[in-house]
## 1
Amino acid sequence: MTQDPREAGPRPPYPGDQQQTRPGLTTKMTPRPDHGETSYVGKGLLAGQAALITGGDSGIGKAVAIAYAREGADVAISYLEVEQEDAEDTKAWVEKAGRRCLLLPGDIRDPDLCRDLVARTVATFGRLDILVNNAAAQVVNEGLDDLKSADIEGSFRANVFAMYHLAQAAVPHMKPGAAIVNSTSVQAKVADPTMLIYAATKGAIASLTIGLSNLLAPQGIRVNCVAPGPIWTPIQPIVKNPEQIAQLGAQTPLGRAGQPGELAPAYVLLASREGSYMSGALVPVTGGMPMY
């Protein structure tokens, strides 16, 4: 039986009085996000492979970690140290799927840490087949006067610069058939005026994906990106006011926020043999919001 996509997840209004302190945590969200814990069924598409996922403790990264494990991959996840509780839960789900999970706390704005993440992943699993650049910093603004140099630099270091450092470290370990999957956003195209910094970083990621795809295609390494729309993740309540949270996703044609688990199949497609002729692509998962 098919499912009405308008009813595949909770619909607004959502409780508006959510956590307001950084970083957001899954355990403090109401309703709890669905990462596919009870619904995702693997097909062995990533059997024997190893993946490194930044921001793998919660939200989209957590859903991808669970899906990759159920597809047969060992998973390393990076996250901020204060997100340890969420990371431990992700690890439990990966291990429940019968795969190994390496926890790698730290701030990817540090280039040395980026290199260390790759080195530790390869040392533990003996290989690296998939790099998922998913972690992101997000700030909001009301006007130009709200933009702070520290926020601009910090956001680009986390969202864009880290992708360069991680790719530089990862690619020498990758063989033909390997894949890099980046997380951009619908904001790369719609560019909400209250998200000037975040939208600019996500636009940069979309362009970086195309350029990196062209660079690495001769080595048999595919590079693609996924563009989420409004997704029910811990990043939402810490950057939006209660009124915005209550109506998150209401503006989409499907009328609701997406759940992290609804993103995982796109990341599996782009990492697996099912997407073997896809490189340089941007895959929107936006609840129907147009990007072109």
Note: Residues 35-284 form a domain with the Rossmann fold fold (CATH 3.40.50.720).
## 2
Amino acid sequence: MEVQGLSCHGCGSTDVEFDPKTRKIHCNQCGREEYYSRAQLGATGKVAFAKDNAIQFFKEGNWSSACKFANDVLNTMQDNASALFIVAYCDEFQDGRSGAIDEFFGKVSLMALEYDEVCDLIDLFESSLYNMRDYEAQMVTVVIENMQSAEDRQTLEGFIETVCPYCISKYASEDFLTDERAALYQDIASHCDVPKTCFALLRGIKENPDSPYRAGSFQMRAHTAYFFEHYVEPVGRILREMKPSSFKPKFIQAYQQVCDQYQSDASAAMG
């Protein structure tokens, strides 16, 4: 397979053949064989051009053009994360192929992504939150796993503070806050400055659709106890794990006030 922009690092010839499965090129002039890294291949003219167009068309809602350019990328770079996401997203939400997004996250979880690839995914995730909100944990996990350095912390925190509060505000019940999800939030809160995310969880005590405050259902003892156990208490554990900051004491105090009020209102309704 010939790919424009690739050349032999030995003799400089562009008369090379490329295997996209292995990212290996063979020079027809000097016989040298070598592997292109993800970063090298992603920076070649054809791949970069097609990827940038795919992302732009995706953000504009031009799904057919986005898929066309994404597939152009995948013809050369089969494991390009942004192209894989665009194709999976269109398969799932435009063509109705259930499971395409789960397959994408299964693939990308096995990759060690380049910084630019992660930034491209952040851009794509943030522009499609209205459909991707049920994949909050997967999106955040992928970005966290590939942004571990201190230099990445501001970008990571900005992404979390965009995605998590939005998703938390859209869940229809307290059941999203599983033990696994609560553990993820605790880990995030202990390592990152994410006051918006913590505030969204705290606000959910009164604003989650299944909250007794929203449903006016404190007199329903089983449901009131269930919401307290599966939402109110986990939020307290998350807030107590917040890394030290000027925000933490205020959040802890606010939580205790809300928690005391919740128990008081529950007792009054059952009195």
Note: The first helix runs from residue 38 to 42.
## 3
Amino acid sequence: MSYKMNEIPKMERPREKMLKYGIDSLSNQDLLSIILKTGTKEKTVQEVSLDLLSTFGDLVHLREMTLYKVCQIKGIGKIKAMELLCCIELGKRIFLEIEPKEKQRLTDPNMIWNNTRYLFYGRKQEYFYCLYLNHKHELIERKLLFMGTINQSIVHPREVFKEAYLSSASSVICLHNHPSNDVRPSKEDISFTNKLVEIGKIQGIPILDHIIVGENSYYSFYEHHNIISF
């Protein structure tokens, strides 16, 4: 049986529950209901929220949402879908952000992988990022430089070093994912990394590492002795 929102007891409605008991009292369904705001003539916003959770299986898989997939759910149009995707993206950025007072020295490939692999969750294409570091190896800028096809990123070294100059970086760490989760470097990965390392030596902005990211593992050129140590 479907209930209209005004037929639901007042203190069971998401907004009222939040105001009285706090945001921690809200279920995932409640949180989505507040973001989505309204349902349809046939379904309450809570039912639409439940449909959304059911479609993606669980909360974790919401990170794999795309505009097209969300718009397939009855009751969620393009505007609502965009607002929802923005909320997910903002949450991800807040989680990943490193505040100045909490700066970490990025010298451990395993730590770098753990701190950045969320950038690649659910990605079906290759994404190429650069981490730009100061002379203490602290992060000063993170840039997404390219998005590629299912199995190839098209990256030009000049873009890597142009951003390094713009951010006054002292060194660079490169990251890209393999959607297949096979993190072994391809011939193109090796060739491109060697080219970056050589240019970095000439420019005086060393490439400290190039990490290939998988969901449960990574490959570090530095750890495999293909790049000069930190």
Note: The mean pLDDT is 84.
